[in-house]
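Researcher: Re-running this chain for the archive, since the previous output was lost when a drive failed. Same request as before.
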Amino acid sequence: MANVIQDSNTTQYHLEDRLEGQHDAIAKMSWMVVKLAFEMLNATPQYIFSHRWGYKQNGRWSGMIDDILNGRADLGTNCAIYTERLDVVTYTDNIAPFKVGFIYRQPPLSYVANIFTLPFSTEVWLAIAACVSFSTVTLYISSKWETKYGRTQLDGNVSDAILVTVSAFSQQGCTLEPRKASGRIMLWVVFSTLMLLYAAYSANIVVLLQAPSSAIRTLTQLSRSKLTLAGNDVDYNHFVFGMYSDPVRVEITKKVKPAKGLAHFYEINKGVEKIRQGLFAFHSIVEPVYRRVEQTFLEMEKCDLVEVDFMMGFDPSVPVKKNSPYLELLRVCFKQIRESGLRSALNKRHQVQKPQCSQKVSAFSSVGLRDLRQVLFLMPYGIVISIIILVIENIYYRM
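Model: Regenerated C-alpha cells:
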C-alpha cells in the first residue's frame, strides 16, 4: 500500500499506535483497514510512503498514483476522485471518509447589515416618524399660542419646534422649553414615549452586536464576501487551487493566490487561530481543523462554525490499479470490514467530528469601528447638510 503523509514525517512510525493523532489521521485509518483486508486475504502487509496524492504534470504522474501505475504499490490511501485519475486507477470503497472545504465563522451581523435599522420593523419606524412629525406640529402650535399670551423661550417658529422634538428623539434634552402647562405636558408626553422606545431599541442593539449572521452559506457567497481566504500549507492545496475553470472557483483561487504578493497559505495551528479571530476562511481537510478547534475554541465560539465544500466531488475512495487481479478480492474485503462495524469503530477512534454547540452563552463582545460605521457616517453627512443649509440661509438673507 502507498501511504500518503503530509502533516509530519513521524507519521510513518505511528501508523498503528494512536500516537500523534493530530497528524495524518486519514493515512493511519486507511492503513489499518487495508492491513485487515491483507490479513483476510492471507497476504503479507507491506507499505511504502509518498508525500503527494498524485497529480499529472507535463504528462507524467507523481506521488501515490505514480506508485500504483508503475507497480510499486497495489493500492493507495483514500483520496478524492478526479477525472484524470480514472484513466489509470479504479476506485473501490470509501474506507476513511473525510471532507475538504473552507471552514470559517459566520461574520457578525454588523458586518453584513446595518444593525441600527434592525431593532424595529418598517411599520414601527413609520409610526415613530409619524409620532415625531405630529409632536413637532403640536409643539409649534403650542409655541405660537404662548408667544401671544405670555413670555416663552420658544419663538413660535418651526425650527425651534423641530429642535425640541429631535432632542427628545435622541434623549439629549434641550435648553428651549415651553412655559405654559399645556406645552410642558405635551413635551413630557413626547419624552416619555420616546424614552420607552429608546430603552427597547438599546436592548435590541446589544443583542444584535453579538449576533452572527447567516449571510455566507454557499461557494458563490463566499467568493463575493470580504472574508480573507487561505489554505492549509500542505501539498494538495497547492494543486487544488487552479484545477477548476468555472468563474466562482477562479475568483476564489485569485483571492488565495493573488497575482501580486504572497499566497495565503498557513500551517494548521495559525490557520485555526485566524478562524477563531473571525473574518477568515481556511481551506483544509476538516478533521485536523476540528481537532484543533476542540483544543482552542471557547464553547460560544463553536456555535457559528460553517464549512463550504470547494471541490464538490464524489466521496473519496481507495485507488487500485486498473485491471488489477486483486480488485474484486479487495472490494469484497472492504465491504465485510464495513458491515462488521470495524471501519466505523476506527473512524470514531481516529477522527474528530464537527464540534457541537452545546449551549449558546452570552459573553463580553467588544465593539469596534466596523460595528459603528453607519453611525460614523452621520458625522460627515451632518457636516455636508449643515453647509448646504448655511449657503441657503445666506442666499435667503441677501435676497
